[in-house]
TrEMBL record, chain B:
It comes from Hadarchaeum yellowstonense. It holds the Pfam family BPD_transp_2. The keyword Transcription does not apply. It is a multi-pass membrane protein. This is Branched-chain amino acid ABC transporter permease. It is found in: Cell membrane. The chain crosses the membrane at residues 6-27, 39-61, 81-110, 165-183, 225-246, 253-279, 299-317.
Length: 290, 342
């Protein structure tokens, strides 16, 4: 495998120029002159490998997620989907390969650093702060709050204004996901579907540019799945968000999906528009078995 | 007179334990750090009192001799000097407290850093061992605090004459009240919410951009500084530092029991727990002789047995404590309700 070297060119003002003028500049190439990242790509996973002892969980995974799309990651159990999200979000470090988010390499970043870059994840089993209220859960995700500093926390006037602004924003977000009426309830009192929505609300509060979700429809009442994905599409439009979603239940969510990656045994075996991928023989074979 | 002495003694003991348990509540109750080495920072504060102010004054007064071996005669001269020098006494007291805060912060950082990334179990053991370690060092290394015999500390309240006991008890209590308001301020701010988030779910907190290692280290530095102040004040109150007296049972496990009884992550609960425990303790001490004929064991063990039984009962029947953790909104509820409606 060749060594990839990257040239980072971050000139945001060039986005204002016509496409043909900026396209030769706004790319990242490897040593073989192959384009690794274009201006439309938000996340690039390049040759990522992850093993646990003798088990190869991810094997040379390549993936590109374009901005403002709802991208789905499918595959049978044990295909490496959750491991990939764990690697991208900084919970696991890859053995090999690179991960680039918004022109910045995040391969060696810790989970909190990845989040601060604007790449936030949710979990298959919602990871909430169960003793905190719904509103407090959302407010926890607010970045750069001076009131979280030991030096400033004692002096209320140093943080009260930002806290008020943050609370207003939190209520707006809770309203968007339909949870504002439950703001004073403890997170542990929510239903499974509401917990998933609260995780989404927290991700929005953190100022995420991209949200990775691990099975947001798992364990959710079927009628609520449709509602949740409609919310995602609304959020995508309203906040210019990008989604990378792992999901097992394909039928109810396909109408909302822009692009699909299919994985099997730690590799990406197919990618493209939803119908193309679902009709791909390799994908059918991976789900039905050889 | 006995009643006043009892009240003053209780005031000072409540003060010291309140500071210690509030600091424990900050790191363990709010942030979820399993601090089984609370005695560590307490000893650090006491050792500052044992080591620095006496030597400084001895140098100032041009005394010759070894501060540890000639401790009794040197402290006699120092205290005679301090009795007629209110300003120097107060300045020395304040300077010692400041050094204790700094030393407490260093001890908090050093004791937490090695195992903070590994997990709760190793961190708990590390803190426990370090607490024991510093006590053992103090017991065996005489220059620090007089070894197993101990050392007398300068009496910075000697100027109060016959009212010394009253003054020092009130000072200790005033410090504990100030620390209560300080900790309450911290925990009622967005910082308190962040600490509770780290305690509730580290994975979620980290995935929301919170640097949990940094948060834990800072929390331990601040809580250890508070415990060091408690240790320094206790040393000034008792007038001596004896390393062997700083046992994990008295200065780690009893604060834990006080916190569990009052209510974890509730500062008012901590106050309740401390008052209940100290009152019970003083009663047992007062009525030891009367209780002896009714006990099938030495009355010395009654106190610890009662504490143990109490902790078991709390954990079994009321694990949230007498006053459970409450919602602590950073803004007024009326403001929040108004915001929700708009």
């Amino acid at each position: 495998m060749h060594q990839i070297t990257y040239t980072y060119i971050n000139l945001p003002h060039l986005y204002l120029l016509p496409e043909k003028l900026i396209s030769p500049i706004k790319v990242i190439k490897d040593t073989h002159n192959k384009i690794v990242m274009t201006k439309d790509d938000l996340l690039v996973v390049e040759g990522v490998r992850k093993t646990f002892g003798g088990l190869v969980a991810l094997d040379e995974v390549n993936m590109k997620v374009k901005k403002n799309l709802l991208v789905m990651l499918i595959g049978p159990n044990g295909s490496g989907k959750t491991t990939l999200i764990n690697v991208i979000s900084g919970i696991y470090k890859p053995d090999k390969g690179k991960i680039i988010f918004e022109n910045k390499e995040i391969t060696e970043c810790s989970a909190d650093e990845v989040c601060r870059e604007g790449l936030v994840r949710t979990f298959q089993i919602p990871q909430l702060f169960t003793k905190l209220t719904v509103l407090e859960n959302v407010l926890t995700a607010y970045k750069d709050n001076p009131g979280t500093s030991f030096l400033k926390a004692c002096v209320k006037r140093t943080w009260i204004q930002r806290e008020t602004e943050a609370t207003k924003k939190a209520f707006e977000i809770l309203d968007t996901v339909g949870l504002s009426h439950m703001w004073d309830k403890r997170a542990s009192e929510l239903s499974g579907g509401q917990m998933k929505l609260l995780e989404t609300a927290r991700a929005l509060m953190s100022g995420a540019k991209m949200i990775m979700m691990d099975e947001p429809a798992a364990g959710v009442f079927p009628s609520l799945i449709d509602k949740i994905f409609k919310h995602f599409v609304e959020l995508k439009k309203k906040f210019g968000l990008t989604f990378l979603i792992i999901e097992h239940r394909l039928e109810p969510v396909l109408p909302y999906v822009d692009y699909v990656y299919a994985m099997d045994r730690g590799r990406v075996i197919s990618e493209g528009k939803p119908k193309e991928v679902l009709n791909d023989e390799k994908v059918i074979e991976s789900y039905l078995g050889e | 007179m006995a009643a006043i002495d009892f009240l003053l003694d209780m005031l000072a003991t409540v003060g010291v334990y309140l500071m210690l348990t509030l600091s424990l509540n900050l790191d363990s109750g709010y942030c979820g750090i399993p601090n089984f080495g609370k005695v560590l920072a307490m000893i650090a504060g006491a050792f500052v009192v044992a080591f620095f102010p006496g030597r400084i004054l001895a140098t100032m007064l041009g005394m010759s001799g070894d501060f540890v071996t000639d401790n009794a005669s040197m402290i006699f001269q120092i205290n005679s000097f301090l009795a007629s020098n209110f300003l120097i006494s107060t300045a020395l007291f304040i300077a010692t407290i400041i050094v204790a805060i700094g030393f407490g912060m260093i001890v908090g950082y050093v004791s937490t850093r090695p195992a903070v990334k590994i997990g709760s179990g190793p961190l708990a053991i590390t803190l426990l061992v370090m607490g024991e370690g510093l006590r053992v060092i103090g017991t065996n290394y005489a220059p620090l605090a007089g070894g197993s015999i101990g050392i007398s500390a300068p009496d910075v309240f000697a100027w109060a004459g016959g009212d010394r006991f009253l003054v020092v008890s009130v000072v200790v209590f005033v410090f504990s009240v100030a620390i209560f308001f300080f900790v309450n301020r911290l925990t009622n701010a967005p910082l308190g919410r962040m600490l509770r988030a780290v305690r509730d779910n580290e994975i979620a907190a980290e995935s929301l951009g919170i640097d949990i290692v940094g948060v834990k280290l800072k929390t331990m530095m601040v809580s250890s500084a508070i415990a060091a102040v408690a240790g320094a004040l206790y040393a000034f109150y008792s007038g001596a530092v004896i390393s062997t007296a700083y046992t994990r049972a008295s200065w780690t496990f009893i604060p834990w029991a006080m916190m569990l009884l009052g209510g974890v992550a509730n500062n008012v609960g901590v106050v309740t727990g401390v008052f209940t425990f100290v009152f019970l303790r003083k009663l047992i001490v007062m009525y030891k002789a009367e209780l002896t004929p009714y006990l099938p064991f030495d009355v010395l063990w009654l106190e610890l047995i009662l504490y143990g039984v109490m902790v078991i009962l709390i954990l079994m029947y009321r694990p949230e404590g007498l006053i459970p953790e409450k919602r602590t909104p950073t803004l007024k509820m009326s403001t929040l309700k108004k915001m929700q409606k708009t």
